[in-house]
Amino acid sequence: MGVLKRCRMHCYVHEPEARETAEREGITRSAAAVRLALERHRGAFFVIGNAPTALMELLRHGEASDSVVIGVPPIGFVGAAQAKDALARSGLTYLTVPGHRGGGSPMASSILNTIGGMA
Questions:
Q1: Does 100 map to a domain?
Q2: Can you list the residues of the chain whose pLDDT is less than 70?
Q3: Does residue 2 belong to any structural domain of this protein?
Q4: For the whole model, what pTM was predicted?
């Protein structure tokens, strides 16, 4: 796994702070988790496989300007195609599957594992 052995991975969706922020602000836990990650990890490598709201939240914040993003929310999820299109226009370093084609957590993890194996 090369480079992935040297990385620390975090998922903040189940953190109490993410849940509290989501309830207080009326946003999804995925979006709240992105906020939490941005506070704690500038310049992070974000992997978003299932939550268009998380991807849109990431794109709303200037703190993400030095981040790398794998953003592949799946077809059929409300806002998935729009979120991927916004990512493509964002100026961030990214990888996505355009429009209404493919996506989801299995694809996101496969991309990450492939990139990790190349480095």
A1: yes
A2: 1-4, 62-63, 99-100, 119
A3: no
A4: 0.87
